[in-house]
Amino acid sequence: QQEKEDLQGKLKLREHLSLTAGKSEATPAPSKNIDLEMKQLQSKLKKSNTEITKQSTTIKSLKEQVREKEERIRELQAKFSRLERDLTMKRHLIEDLRSHLKANEVNEKTLNETLESLERKVVKALAEDKKTSIDSLKQRLNVAAKEKSQYEQMYHKAKDELKTKDLRLTKLESKVTEAECGMIELETATSRQLHGLARQSAQALETLRKELLLTSDKVEEFKTFVKTLTRGLHDSVQELRAKIKVAKKMGEMKACKKDLSQEYLQLAASILNVSTTDIYEILQEGDDEETAKMKMGFEKDEEWLQHIQKLLEAQ
């Protein structure tokens, strides 16, 4: 601003000099040097104006920064005061905690003493419990050993029965193979006979038809025979079961067992697909089990009848 004022003073002085020079001279002819100086001074003035504007903007920004820093300082001071308050509170808390810690240490000592006494008592009680438990375990072990021997005996019995059943199975398999071989031989023989019969006359065909009719009649007779036989077996088994039930209820089970023939028992065993010993065990069980097994036997008998019916109806 001072430079600006100096320049403006100089300009005014130059203008004044030029005016005085123009008045003194007759013809107004301003000198070139004065014009150049004027231009230079004007350019300097412009530069100074721009610098002044820049400086004013920088001053404004600096003032803003100063204001922000003052606000920051106020915030920091408030924070500092809050931290001081927190610090004092924490000190008080630490002192309280120390007092609590001392009290807890005292309590811990008393608790440790009580725990030691309790541990001693518990150890004594556990020792007594262990003795009683060992005695009970020994008794259980003896019982388990007895049960083991019983189960081993049962296992050996079952093994023997399995062996006998395996032998039966092998015999049955050999019979089945023999039957299959016989069937194959029959098929071959019949095929040869059919080839031979195909070459014969119509009379042979008629005789064959008659034979076929006779065989179909025989098949029907066989079917009726099988049906009546199975029905009779079914009825006899049911009667037998009813007799056994009545004999059990009247307390004459032993006499009934003596009266029962081996044929009936074998028949019942073959129908139920079990051994004769199993039938004796079934007869010796309670009423509820007996009724349940009777029902199961009836159901098995019905299934057996249906199976035979299906076999008869099959091709």
UniProtKB/TrEMBL annotation:
It comes from the Eukaryota. GO terms for cellular component: centriole; centrosome. Residues 1-17 have a biased composition (Basic and acidic residues). Residues 1-32 are annotated as: Disordered. InterPro entries: CNTLN (IPR038810). One of its GO terms (biological process) is centriole-centriole cohesion. PANTHER family: CENTLEIN (PTHR18957). This is CNTLN protein. It comes from Atrichornis clamosus.
